[in-house]
């Protein structure tokens, strides 16, 4: 049970890193439950969303622009990556299910969020000379929105596709095994060390596996594996769960299934409403995003109701009669400052690759190559992710005032997406109340550091999130 590298996790990032290392002739073992409970990859729409994920907040900081650079590099790698997976796995099923991405601006949201982010997407596309075209939303195949939330404008991003996440995970498993890798269907409890150097891992049932290099890419549960390394883990931004629900629908008329991704700009702390064709009359619709201290396993009635109502109102009213084939739940890993945790972390030979939030599956080919190069002592010439080293002071995206404003606007966007009908004057009152609430929350957490808007809003209802933020910030006080 001695390996060159042990990879912990069974999602898209862990699977990609393990496959890349095995394809380079290293002896690799990947550990993680194959039922992938709580994993983000399992419920993902698997959009190759780069520019479609842009928000005004993302491009407002250097760290956000670095994330955008990661997305751009990853987008350009997917074609070759998919060919490699087919060749290694022997699985010839079509991986991509949607051609291009339509971004729609509709009346279900609010101008301060939807219009601003829609404009940020278009201006960023122009800035990077990315091909796109302006389209009439009424011409998009699969669109038949309720007139109350009709689309006003639309963009078509021709080089942002989507794939079937279930097929991707199966391909990664098969490709890894055929490259000589070994899979252990068991979760890891802790890492093993000796004199400050990694020696291996121990599973939840006590089995031990040895290696002088270990990569933890277990999503939101990655830091749990380091819980007995307190001096290290307390200086790493804690991870929280972005609980998301998606549904697979069997549409009544398969001929009307869209051929592209259809999505709104990011809103209400989520990746916008989006639908992705899966073939055979099946439509993926996602995804919600509710932050919590611990991963969640089951969908709530309220979340499912909200999602399907958004789908048949904003995408196609005929989805009201679609059949629900599956309800999927995943947990995205969001760090305390909103940025990824990538790099060696306090123990020689121990690496973390997590905290990617909504971008992990899309970035997996890039992260696989980046991690493999670093582990093998090879240079990464295309991008430097040193800023995202796991042991770090909180990185600053938006300043405090902008963070509070963003949290208030995104919270209000939830109401507008639910089509609330408030009388004139109340929206200003609600906005002012939210600003005051979130300012008080931010100041109660720390006098200097400010968490991202998502965590500001959800920490108001979860004392454990607040406590973990305070503990982390206190570790970095002068």
**DSSP, total strands:** 21
Number of helices: 11
Helix content: 25-40%
Largest sheet data: 9 strands, mixed
- Helix/strand/pairing category: alpha/beta
**What does the overall shape look like?**
globular
Radius of gyration: 22 Å
> How far from one another are the termini?
44 Å
- Poorly predicted sequence stretches spanning 5 or more consecutive residues: none
- Average residue-wise pLDDT: 95
Proportion of β residues?
Answer: 15-25%
Question: Could you describe the 3D structure shown?
Answer:
It is globular and about 65 Å long. Strands 5, 6, 7, 14, 15, 16, 17, 18 and 19 form a nine-stranded mixed β-sheet that branches. A six-stranded mixed β-sheet has the order 9-3-2-13-21-20, covered by helices on one side. The chain has 478 residues and is an alpha/beta fold. The protein has helices at 12-23, 62-89, 111-127, 165-178, 230-233, 301-314, 360-375, 400-417, 426-445, 453-459, 463-474, and strands at 2-3, 5-8, 28-31, 96-98, 101-106, 133-135, 151-157, 162-163, 182-184, 188-194, 197-203, 208-211, 214-216, 239-250, 261-263, 274-279, 282-286, 290-292, 323-335, 341-344, 350-354. Strand 10 (188-194) and strand 11 (197-203) form a beta hairpin. It is built from eleven helices and 21 strands. InterPro entries: FAD-dep_OxRdtase, FAD/NAD-bd_sf. Pfam families: DAO. This is FAD-dependent oxidoreductase.
């Amino acid at each position: 049970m001695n390996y060159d590298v042990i990879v912990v996790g069974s999602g898209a990032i862990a699977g990609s890193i393990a496959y890349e290392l095995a394809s380079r002739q290293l002896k690799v073992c990947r550990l993680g439950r194959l039922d992938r409970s709580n994993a983000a990859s399992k419920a993902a729409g698997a959009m190759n969303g780069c520019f479609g994920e842009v928000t005004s907040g993302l491009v407002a900081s250097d760290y956000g622009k670095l994330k955008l650079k990661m997305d751009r590099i990853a987008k350009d790698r997917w074609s070759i990556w998919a060919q490699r997976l087919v060749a290694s796995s022997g699985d010839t099923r079509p991986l991509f299910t949607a051609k291009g991405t339509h971004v729609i601006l509709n009346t279900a949201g609010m101008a301060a969020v939807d219009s601003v982010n829609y404009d940020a997407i278009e201006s960023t596309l122009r800035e990077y000379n990315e091909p796109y075209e302006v389209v009439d939303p009424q011409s998009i195949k699969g669109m038949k929105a309720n007139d109350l939330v009709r689309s006003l404008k639309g963009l078509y991003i021709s080089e942002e596709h989507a794939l079937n996440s279930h097929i991707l995970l199966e391909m990664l498993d098969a490709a890894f095994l055929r490259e000589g890798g070994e899979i252990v269907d068991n979760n890891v409890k802790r890492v093993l060390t000796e004199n400050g150097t990694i020696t291996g891992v121990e599973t939840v049932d006590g089995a031990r596996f040895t290696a002088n290099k270990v990569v933890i890419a277990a999503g939101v549960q990655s830091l749990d594996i380091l819980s007995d390394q307190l001096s290290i883990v307390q200086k790493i931004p804690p991870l929280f769960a972005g609980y998301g629900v998606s549904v697979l629908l069997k549409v009544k008329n398969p001929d009307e299934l869209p051929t592209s991704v259809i999505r709104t700009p990011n809103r209400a702390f989520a990746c916008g409403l989006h639908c992705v064709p899966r073939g055979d009359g099946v439509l993926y619709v996602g995804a919600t995003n509710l932050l919590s201290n611990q991963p969640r396993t089951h969908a709530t009635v309220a979340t499912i109701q909200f999602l399907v109502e958004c789908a048949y109102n904003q995408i196609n009213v005929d989805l009201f009669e679609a059949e629900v084939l599956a309800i999927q739940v995943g947990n995205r890993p969001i760090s305390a400052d909103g940025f990824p945790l990538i790099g060696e972390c306090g123990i020689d030979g121990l690496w973390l690759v997590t905290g990617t939030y909504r971008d992990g599956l899309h970035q997996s080919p890039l992260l696989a190559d980046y991690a493999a190069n670093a582990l093998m002592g090879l240079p990464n010439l295309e991008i430097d992710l040193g800023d995202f080293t796991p042991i770090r002071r909180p990185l600053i995206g938006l300043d405090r005032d902008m963070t509070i404003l963003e949290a208030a606007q995104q919270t209000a966007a939830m109401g507008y997406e639910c089509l609330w009908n408030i009388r004139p004057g109340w929206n200003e009152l609600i906005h002012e109340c939210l600003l005051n609430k979130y300012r008080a929350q931010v100041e109660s957490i720390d006098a200097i550091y400010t968490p991202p808007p998502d965590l500001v809003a959800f920490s108001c209802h979860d004392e454990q999130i607040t406590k973990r933020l305070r503990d982390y910030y206190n570790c970095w006080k002068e």
